[in-house]
Amino acid sequence: MTDKQRIMLFYERRDAVAWLAHLDMMRLFERSLSRADWPLSWTEDAFNPRPEIVFGLPVGVGIETRRDPLEVTLALRGQVFDPDQALIRLNHSFPAGVKVVDWHEREPGSRSLMAQVTAARYRLEAGGVGTAFRKAFGGSGPVEVVRQQKKKKLVVDLAPRILSFEEGGEGKVFLTAGAGSTGHLRLDLLLDALVLYGGLSREAAQGARVVRLSVFLDGDTARQGIIV
Predict the structure, then answer these.
(1) pTM value?
(2) Residue where a domain terminates, one of 45, 75, 110
(3) Which structural domain range is residue 95 located in?
(4) Residue 156 and residue 189 in contact, taking contact as beta carbons nearer than 8 Å
(5) pLDDT tens digit string along 57-106?
(6) Residue 45: C-alpha distances to residues 42, 68, 181 (Å)
(7) pLDDT tens column, 155-185
(8) Count of the separate structural domains present in the chain
(9) What is each CA distance from 175 to 60, 79, 136, 165, 182, in whole angstroms?
């Protein structure tokens, strides 16, 4: 019988790699883990087996991260695995801009990582974004935008998806928002709302810098992001 171990990794991505799509990030981790000699467990799909790697919350193109979680399942087959040494090898195998900043072991039988995601903390940088945020989300009314879903257009109220926000200086806002399977905030819709309701210029919205500082899972009570 194969001994399996589940490891939670927390990674950051900066600079050019922030423009990789989610599937490209999956391939990047698969290749880097293989180069670093991690004993990956593979799915039992006969036609298309894949390494058992699960991202907690897929990250959109252009968004940087500072502490995003992913889970890796290992097939140890009786061998000794030293996570600290393995992480050194892994970080050396990444391209510039990607780094694992922390890790811990997952309990056997724990729920799916994606099912545990409840919220995320962001830093948003753009000229005039603080004023736009106050105008759009400072009141008690709805902030509705249109979301295209296949052939249908859906009206989405973003106001209840913003859990908290505060300004962090000139052209900078910190916000905590819903994430995961319920109440998820899409950042492209947020920027649309800041243009429509807050008066943010379209140019500022298109050039905004978005950094996901942390992702909150079930049991994270403080919901405090890492402000860097």
Answers:
(1) 0.90
(2) 110
(3) 4-110
(4) yes
(5) 999 999 999 999 999 999 988 788 899 999 999 999 999 999 999 999 98
(6) 9, 27, 25
(7) 999 999 999 999 998 899 999 999 998 899 9
(8) 2
(9) 17, 44, 13, 4, 17
